[in-house]
Amino acid sequence: MVADGADKLQVISDFDMTLTKFWVNGQRGMTSHALLETNSLLPLSYREKVAALKEKYYAIETSSTIAVDDKLQHMEEWWGQGHDALVACGVHRSVLGKIVQEGNTTL
Q1: 56 vs 53: CA distance, rounded Å
Q2: What is the pTM of this model?
Q3: Which helix or strand (DSSP H or E) is residue 94 part of?
Q4: What is the dihedral of CA 55, 61, 62, 63, to 10 degrees?
Q5: Can you spell out the DSSP letters for 15-29?
Q6: What is the pLDDT of residues 68-98, one digit of tens each?
Q7: E-assigned strand segments in the chain
Q8: How far apart (Å, rounded) are the C-alpha atoms in residues 50 and 27?
Q9: Which stretches in the chain have pLDDT values below 50?
Q10: Would you please indicate which residues are annotated as catalytic (active-site) residues?
């Protein structure tokens, strides 16, 4: 990142559907994370890892009995581990456009 400079930095953050529509063509739309988590252009090992993370953390995110401060810690863990998995799978910028085209999402 330092070598490429700030003009090459891109951040995609839509884990909670603040940027994407909930309904697209009569189906639930996908968040930017869901586009990556379900696309066959990314390795099965990545998709399995993030599915396991969702299984663990989604119940915490939606729980009405867990304090917000506790949830925040878990959500940061989820985001960090998901990000690490994406980096580890070696995703390249060149496939991102195709992943978006294949997904069910609209801004």
Answers
A1: 5
A2: 0.74
A3: helix 93-102
A4: 100
A5: TTSSSS-SEETTEE-
A6: 999 999 999 999 999 999 999 998 888 988 9
A7: 23-24, 27-28
A8: 22
A9: none
A10: 14, 16
